[in-house]
Amino acid sequence: MTYQSSYELDIPIISIRKLIDKYPSLQANSIKKPIRSNNQITRQRLQLDFEYEYDFSTTKNQIDITEIIIQDHFNISNYKLRRDKLCPRINNRMEYLLILESCLIEPCCIDKAVQDANYVIDIGTGSSLVYPIIGTKISQFKNKYIATEINETSVNHIGKILNENIQLQNNVQLVKGNNQQLIPEISQDKKVKYLVCNPPFYTNIEELNEKEGLKKTIKPNELTIDDSELIYDQGGELAFIRKLIDESTVLINSPNTFPTFENCWFTSQVGIHSHLEELNEYIELRGIPFKFNESIKFNTTRWIIGWRFGGHQSVMIQKYVSPLNWPSRNVLQNIFSKLHQHLEETKGRFNDFQFKLITVKHNRNVFYVRTNEYIWLRKIRRLLSNSTMSRSSDLSFDKDILIRIFVDKGKDNFDLNILTNEVDHNIHYNSLKSMINQLLVPSS
Q1: Residue closest to 321 by CA, chosen among 442, 430, 437, 410
Q2: Phi then psi dihedrals of residue 89, to 5 deg
C-alpha cells in the first residue's frame, strides 16, 4: 500500500496494525478498541470483537514502534535506539529522500557525469543512522552513504549498528564530524550525488524549552534527556544551514574539491517556515544559480531547501493529470514512438531544432524529452503547421528544456504525469498533454 505525498509520490505505507499482530510486545503500548463494523461476516471472519490501536502519545512508545519498523521493514537486525536521543519520524525521512531522488536526482542522472556519482552525504546523522538505513533500502540508485556525527555517544551507538549489519558496513562510512567544518573531506575519487541534513533547530536550552513548551499546549510531547541533537549554539537552524551554503560555495570554488561536488545537490530540511525565505535570499546573494523548495506534510510540516551550482536546471515541477482512456496497453511506447516521429518531422523542416529522447534504465515507465524549443505550445504549433514558413521571431531554438513523462497503470486506466523545469509549468503541462493526446488519437 502507498499514500500520495505532497509531491504526489507514492510513499510506502507501513501498516502499524500488522506490526502489532506480528510483534505481540507492541500490544502493551496499544489501546483495545471495539471493531467498528456492523458487518457480521467481517466480525466472524476476524473472530474478534476488538482491535488494537497504537498509542503514540509517549516517547517510549514512539521509540518501541520505530525500532520494530526499522528491524522489520528495513531488515536491520537487533536495531535499537538510544532512549536519551531523538526518535526519528520514518515517513517524514522517507518522503524527503524520495522527493530528492524523483524530482532532483533522477533528472540529473540522464547526464553521464551524474550517473557516475554514487555517494550521498548525511550531515549529522544522529544516533539512529536513519537516512542511510532508509536510503540504502528504498533508493532506485545504488548509493553509498557518508554519515557524519559529532556526538561521541551517538558515534559509539552507530558503530554497534554497523557492526551487527554487514549490508550497512558495505554501504555506509561513518565520519566523526565537528562544528568547524560540517561537510567532511572526501577523497577525490568519490563523486557526491546529493547531501541531506536534518539540522538542529535551536540556539540554546532556553529557546528549546520555550518552543517545546508551546508545542505541549497543542500536542503532548516529551523532551529527550540529551538535547545535543536539537541545539547548535552558533545560531540554531538558520545559522547551521547558512554555514552549509558557505561551505558548499568554498568546495565548488576549489579546484581540489570541485570534481567531487560538481554535480551535487546540497539539501536540508527546514523546520521553521520563516527561515525558508531568508535562506532563499541567502542562496541568491551567494550567486548560486539553482535552488529548490518543497514541503513535507506528514504529521508535522517540514520544508526542503536545495541548491546546486552547475549543470542543467534539473528541478522537476510535477503536475498530475486525471486518468485518460488511451487505446492501447503499450501507452508509454506509443507516446515515445509518436513523439519521436513528430520531433523528427519538425527537425526536417527546421535545421536549428534539436531534440533528444532519453530512457531511464531503472524505471521503464519514464522517459525524458530535451529540446531547444517549445514545440508543444499552441502558438508554436500554429507556426509549425504553416507549410510555407521557414523562420519566425517566435522560434529562437536557443532554449534548454527538460520534460519528464511518466505513465502509471491505475485500476481502470492509465495516469499521465508530466514534469517540467519551466517556471510557468501549468501552460507547458497542459499544452504537452494536449499534443500527446492528438498524436495518440488523431482526429478523423
Answers
A1: 430
A2: -85, 110
What is the helix (H) or strand (E) element at residue 182, kind and residue range?
none
**What is the SS3 assignment for 355?**
strand
pLDDT in tens, 347-402: 888 888 999 888 876 667 788 888 888 888 887 777 777 756 555 566 788 887 87
Helix or strand holding residue 348 (H, E):
helix 331-349
Note the helical H segments in 219-313: 236-253, 258-261, 273-285
406 versus 307: the higher-pLDDT residue is: 307
> What is residue 324's DSSP assignment?
B
Residues near 257 by beta carbon (within 8 Å), at least 6 away in sequence = 186, 188, 250, 251
* Residue 189 C-beta-side C-alpha neighbours within 13 Å: 0
Side chain identity at residue 194, one-letter code: Y
Q: How many CB atoms lie within 10 A of CB 431?
A: 19
Q: Quick one: what percent of the chain has pLDDT higher than 70? A: 75
Kindly state the cell numbers that stand for 20.
502489532
124 burial class (0-12, 13-18, 19+ CB within 10 angstroms)?
A: buried
How many CB atoms neighbour CB 282 within 10 A? 18
| CB 174, CB 147: distance < 8 Å | yes
Q: What is the pLDDT of residue 143?
A: 87
Fold type of domain 81-308: Rossmann fold (3.40.50)
- Contact of 315 with 421, CB cutoff 8 Å: yes
Strands (E) located in 134-285: 144-149, 172-176, 192-197, 265-270
- Amino acid sitting at position 339: L
Query: What cell does 299 get?
Result: 504529521
Give the pairing type, strands 414-420 and 317-320.
antiparallel
In CATH terms, 317-440 corresponds, of 3.40.50.2000, 3.90.320.10, 3.40.50.11810, 3.30.310.80, to 3.30.310.80
Is there a contact between 231 and 208 (Cβ–Cβ < 8 Å)? yes
How many whole angstroms separate alpha carbon 1 and alpha carbon 17?
Answer: 13
- Domains in the chain: boundaries: 81-308, 317-440
- For the stretch 34-83, pLDDT in tens is 766 555 555 454 455 567 889 998 889 999 999 999 999 999 989 999 99
Distance CA(71)–CA(73), nearest Å, equals 6
Q: What residue type is assigned to position 394 of the chain?
A: D
Which of 198, 194, 147 has the alpha carbon at shortest distance from 290?
194
